[in-house]
Amino acid sequence: MLPPWNEPAIRILMMPRDTNAHGTIFGGVILSHIDQAGAIEARRQGCGLIVTVSMDKVVFHEPVFVGDLVSFWTETLRIGRTSITTKVRVEAIRGNDPSARFLVTEAQVVYVNVGEDRKPKAITPLPNGFG
User: What is the pairing mode between strands 49-55 and 101-114?
Assistant: First the structure.
C-alpha cells in the first residue's frame, strides 16, 4: 500500500447553501464528501467503477462553519481482490490562520470494484497510483 498523499483528495470552501438551521454545515454534506474522497483514493489505487459498501461509525468532533476550508485526507488501508478500504480524515481550517486546524471526523469506507455489468471485478493495483 502506498503512504498517505501529501495533498488532500478534496479541499472545499464551505458555503451558506450547505448550512442547517443551526448555522453549521449539514453532516450529510460532509458524509457525501467523505464518500467522494475515499472514491478518489480507490481510483488512485487502480479501481475503475466502484460502489460504496460501507462507511464505519462517523463521530463529529467539531462543527463545520460557513467559510471553513475543509480538507479530506485519504490513505489506503487494505486492497483485497475486488474490494478496497480507505481511511478519510476530515480537517477544517477556520479563518485565515492555517495553524487553526481542527479534526472534524474520520471514517473508513469500503468500496467494491465492479465491471460494466455491475458485478465485482478484480482490482489491478497501480504501481504508484495516478496522483
Answer: antiparallel
